């Protein structure tokens, strides 16, 4: 005979309140909006919620409010990894007590727009977040149904636009490298179909001119490591840069490989910077100086716009810098090459 254990009982608001040392009305208020509560109170309730594993009863809430407690995030099928963006979005939704379904749709803008409208009118979700633009024909005249919010951060192919294309860290990188003594630079650019790649290229050229630096050129890359290797292989041995600004970390890793093939030490002969703060780059020898873009914050703010549209609780938005330079071992003052030795030889 098989014995079946009874399902674990869900903790209640009153149990959360008792553990946190507050009233159950305060916990109810906390679940609707964190604003207006003292930091110490928030900390105690947060701890109680985590310790008890409390989650709002979505079914009961649905019966009271006639809402499902469910949200949908719609995005195109893409080869790019948007795990960090979705991580921030899902965390914010769960914090507000919502369940989220991520829907990846293959096809055109019109196809994705149709899917968004189907979800909005299905009665199965309270709101839909579209990470890419919707068809212009309905942007200003959405039919009734669930709330629909369109993210301003990506174009139709999930390429960064707007605030996420901020290239000011390129300027910071070059100013710091110039202060270390670097005068000759190379930029290995990203795919120029991307607004972010165009912005980084423009920032590089502006910094070269403003700081009175020498540029050995802009190598047109495609975000691949091979484009970084190729750019270094094609450099003139008599006019090597001492610093390379790579479009992303993958390109930068190719630059490091190309430098190794040519017998150049990184960072002694060639300082290298990337972009994205790929976790693997912390473990390279040398670890890579790079730029971290707060995609988690962008994802959080996108979902908070949707939560506000569906009348959900007011949560604290992310408000930090979009991008931050992370200085590591791949950048250093340039090493003086012996005058008798041709540049690029050991």
From TrEMBL:
Q: Name one GO molecular function term.
A: DNA-binding transcription factor activity
Record keywords: Transcription regulation included?
yes
Q: Which residues form the HTH lacI-type domain?
A: 11-65
Q: Which UniProt keywords apply?
A: DNA-binding, Transcription, Transcription regulation
Domain of life of the organism encoding this protein = Bacteria
Question: Could you tell me which residues form the DNA-binding region?
Answer: 12-31
- This chain belongs to the protein called LacI family transcriptional regulator
| Organism of this sequence | Nonomuraea polychroma
